[in-house]
Amino acid sequence: MTADQIKQLIAANLACDYITLEGDGRHWYTTVVSAEFEGKRAITRHQRVYATLGDKMKTDEIHALSIKAFTPAEWAAQPV
């Protein structure tokens, strides 16, 4: 899968204020900012992002995905 395809899957299934994705075609790194993460622990946020990908992780279309998941307020507080 390409970076654009993965970003589209995430964005289509999760209301994102911001999303980046980079990687080498097998190992991916994403930052996702969503109001849906409000009040949720990190593990729940990651599970929500994984859920947007359906079976892509199970079938090895996406081998590895590292996730940084923020609420809009957390993202705004990040150092520049």
Main features:
three-stranded mixed sheet; GMP Synthetase, Chain A, domain 3; alpha+beta; 25% strand; Acid stress protein IbaG; BolA/IbaG_stress_morph_reg; BolA; 34% helix; BolA-like_sf
Layout of secondary structure:
Elements: H1 3-13, E1 18-23, E2 27-33, H2 42-52, E3 64-70, H3 72-76
Parallel strand pairs: 2-3
Antiparallel strand pairs: 1-2
Helix pairs in contact: 1-2
- How many β-strand stretches? 3
Main sheet properties = 3 strands, mixed
| Spatial order of strands in the largest sheet | 1-2-3
Q: Tell me the CATH superfamily.
A: BolA-like
Overall pLDDT metric: 95
Question: Quick one: overall form?
Answer: globular
Order of helices and strands: HEEHEH
Write down the Rg: 12 Å
Q: What is the CATH T-level topology? A: GMP Synthetase, Chain A, domain 3
- How many DSSP H or I helices? 3
User: How many domains make up the coordinates?
Assistant: 1
Structural class: alpha+beta
Helix content: 25-40%
Sheet-strand content, in percent, reads 25-35%
Low-confidence region ranges: none
CATH architecture: 2-Layer Sandwich
End-to-end separation in angstroms reads: 31 Å
Report the CATH C-level class.
Answer: Alpha Beta
InterPro entries: BolA, BolA-like_sf, BolA/IbaG_stress_morph_reg
Protein name: Acid stress protein IbaG
Family: Belongs to the BolA/IbaG family.
Pfam families: BolA
